[in-house]
Amino acid sequence: MDRKPRILVVEDEDNIAVALEYLMTREGYDFDRVSSGIDALPRIRVKHPDLVLLDVMLPEVSGYDICQGIRTDPALARTKVLMMTARGSALERKRGIELGADGFITKPFELKDLRAEVRRLLAP
Known about the structure:
Layout: E1 6-10, H1 14-26, E2 30-34, H2 37-47, E3 51-55, H3 63-71, E4 80-85, H4 90-98, E5 103-106, H5 111-122
Parallel strand pairs: 1-2, 1-3, 3-4, 4-5
Helix pairs in contact: 2-3
């Protein structure tokens, strides 16, 4: 791959987004962020990220709705989705996977776990 993998973070909490940006750029990824659910799908459609790090609990539009929107758009078929939640219940995980999420990680997460999950999802 001659370009850096593109990661779009959809996260309304600035402190988490800043930490993710630091980690992802250090790992060599092209990083972008939106802080509200309502802005997520339009940005995803323009940017075509390789991976969306998607918070479940967002203002206006939930991460589940965004995930569903990605999965129902044929142009985004190759986009991977890693959902992040503070609750991490089995029910939430099940719902995310049913809607087409490629992975699920519970906040607060260990950076090494997130790094491993991102690498797994971006592997050819």
